[in-house]
Every structure is written in structure tokens, then in C-alpha cells.
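Q: Fold this one first, please.
A: Sequence and structure below.
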Amino acid sequence: MHDPTFPLLALTRVLPNIDIPPNDNGLPGIEQLRTIVGAVMTVGLILAVLALIISAIIWGFGASSSNPHLASRGKTGVLVSCLAAVVCGSAVALVNFAWGVGQTV
């Protein structure tokens, strides 16, 4: 009878264990790239705060002028800007979490 796990077992016997950690000094310019990524994250957070303020103002104008469409757009903008701030702020933690999960596979 044919064993369905045979290809996987054969592959694990042929390939040795490979352990390649991230290399912090493998390429020139890694520190500059980290600086650029940090600056982009800062700009993203600043723009998310600006979008939150503008969306809250639009929401207020829509609610005070009895314009449900404008108020709805303002609410959506507040939600999207809050989610953008969460993603910008937690990007490093999310990538580190995904890296940790990938290392256990």
C-alpha cells in the first residue's frame, strides 16, 4: 500500500536542517534604511492624526447640519484613520509576530 506521507519524508531526509538568521550587517545601507522606515512610520502617524481631526470636523458639520451623508463620511474617516494609526504604530510588532510564527513552522 502506498504511504501518502512518503514524498514529505523523502524530502526531509534529503534536505538538511537550514538555519538562516537575519543578518544585520549583510548589506550596506541597512542603518539608513531603518532610519527611512522609522521616518515613514512617523509621517504615517502624523497623517493619521491629521485625518482623524479632519474627519471629526466633517462628522461634526454633518451632524450639526442634519446631513446624514456627510456625517456618515466623517464617521468612516474617523474609523479609517484610527485603523491606519493602529497599523502604523504596531507594524513592527506585527512583523515580529509573523516572523516568530514563521520560525515555528
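Q: Good. Now the second chain.
A: Here it is, same layout.
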Amino acid sequence: MPSLLSSRSAVADSDRLTFAGLLGGIVMLGLALQVFVLVQTPSRTSELKQLIALIPIVVGVLTYVRHRPATPDWEIGAVAVWGVLAQWIASAVWFIVGPAFTGGPSLSAALLSGASQFRAAELLRFLGTVAVFAGFYTVAASRRDRLVGGMIALLAVPVVIVVIYTII
């Protein structure tokens, strides 16, 4: 039997528990890396931040392949590239409009809490991003027979990420 990560059919044919375990393991790895990045100095973790940004995309692509196993390779590549672009768009928009929604950070609150509010917000944003990618990529794969519905689901990813960031 092929390993779970070496074949698309293995991802599509695996039972729900195995697939959920795979996704859960990837998300837990991402959370562990995110916690490590939050407690380390920024100069030592720049490469890890790039790796952490790929984890929601990997989860999204795996869910896309799970629900659309006969997808051509170019489409999987396009979906992955769109994930990178969607995160970049969401980050750029959040950089511009984020301060208007969150207001100025209170230095006294950060000092009193030991920056735990900021760390909790970063972890929740990571989990929210993973949930957005998994959910919307699943919808896009399920709506493959309706091209417009699938495209709208994919195009909504950066918008919903910004909304999640605003809520958190």
C-alpha cells in the first residue's frame, strides 16, 4: 500500500479517521512551530515563519485533493499558487486596514499580560487561516461541476481571512 503522502489516490481513498489524523498532525505541527516562533527572537525564526505560512495551504490542497481525486496536476499547482497569493493579498490588506480595526496596541496591557494577548491572537489567527483554507478549498472541490461556485469559493479566501483577522 502506498504511503499517505506519496499518492493522491491514497489521500482520496483513506478513511475519515486517517485523513483527519493526517490533517490534525499537520495542524499540531504548525501550532508547535507557531508557539516556538512566538517565544524566540525574530531574527532566528524568519525561515520558520515562511514554513508556518505554508501549512494552511498544504491543509487546503489536501482537502481539495480529498474531495476531487481526479484533479489534474496543473490544477493542484494552480490551487496551491492561489493559496500563496491569497495569503499575500490578505496580509497586504491587513497591513493597510488592520490598524483601523484593532486600534493602537496598549503598551501597559502588553506589559501586564506578558504579551500573552498578542500570542493568543497569533495562534487563533493561524487556526482561523487553516480553517478558512480547509473549508473553502473543500467547497471549491465539491462545487467543481459548477465552475462559478468553485471559483467564488477560491476567490473568497483572502476576504474571509481578513474578516477572521478582524474578528480576532
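Q: Anything worth noting on the second one?
A: The CA atoms of residues 101 and 166 lie 6 Å apart.
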